[in-house]
Amino acid sequence: MSGQSALEVLLVAFRAGRKGCFRNNGPLPVDNGALVILEVDRGIDMGRVLAKLPPDEENLGQCVGGYLREATPEDRERAAENEGFQREVLRYCRERIESRKLDMELTACEAQLDRNRIRIYFTADQRTDFRGLVRDLAANYRARIEMRQIGIRDDARYKGGLGICGRELCCSSFLDDFQSVTLKMVRTQNLSLNPSKVSGTCGRLMCCLAYEADFYQKARKDYPQPGQTVKIAGAPREVTAVDIFHGTVMVREEGASEAETLTIEEFNLRKAMKEPAPPPQPASAAPKAAPEASEGSRKRRRRRRKPAGADRERNR
């Protein structure tokens, strides 16, 4: 199937946040944002087109099905009915988990449009044997059951919610992949190590801490660290504060009560000077010009000077 040509490759999102690529072999293109009916393994499903990808070999190789048609009002009504069906599946699944005493927490349920396949997402601290639970669900709903264990960050993505910033969680709104977030990023940005301040609803470090990590990492190379002692024009100074957004550095002389604020350019320039620059002299301290000699004083000086041949005439 991947060797056939296609008009376009559709990136489609489903109800539980799952995404996949599908081929459009029809004569007409599909609009972004359209609800479409797709051919999938063991039946049909409905999703929303997120983007259209070029039909090259790489994208065609990632396709898991084909585009059939746009969703009709009947398809939308059936999808709405599936919402209640999914809640019923979760309720029955919780009953069986308690009955079998399984250590797992359910996250979400995703039923295919034709209900031929049911996916159940869950979290667990350790590997769980859920084969008996799958048999119970398959016997009750006569469908193919898929149990998918996910991480705690994926759990927050499926459930959604609001972050401490007041906006929708990044993972459930626009993030496609989770980037590694470390405590080093927190320290680089001079943030509090209090878990309640830097942790998201999932209990892990917030994804947004990685957004500006590169900016702060670069700034650490260009700016001194607070508490560091540097020589400014040959004299030792302590760096008391750094403001990378305004491009300033505050330094304080030993024993001084107030700090001096320098721009980063001025800081680097004065740091390169070995001796302090001489202070500018005020206008009153400038050397005074010698007063102009009077006419009488000039005549007296001429009289004192004797002609060069005067002594020779006297000796004769």
Q: If you had to describe this structure to a student in words, what would you say it looks like?
A:
It contains 11 helices and 12 strands. It is elongated and about 135 Å long. By secondary structure, the protein is of the alpha+beta class. The longest helix has 28 residues, at 73-100. The chain has 4 domains: 8-71, no CATH class; 77-150, 2-Layer Sandwich (GMP Synthetase, Chain A, domain 3), CATH 3.30.300; 157-210, no CATH class; 223-272, SH3 type barrels, CATH 2.30.30. It has helices at 57-61, 73-100, 131-141, 152-159, 170-173, 183-188, 195-198, 213-222, 264-272, 295-304, 310-315; strands spanning 8-13, 19-24, 35-40, 43-53, 63-70, 105-111, 117-123, 144-149, 229-232, 235-243, 248-253, 260-263. Helix content is 32%, strand content 25%.
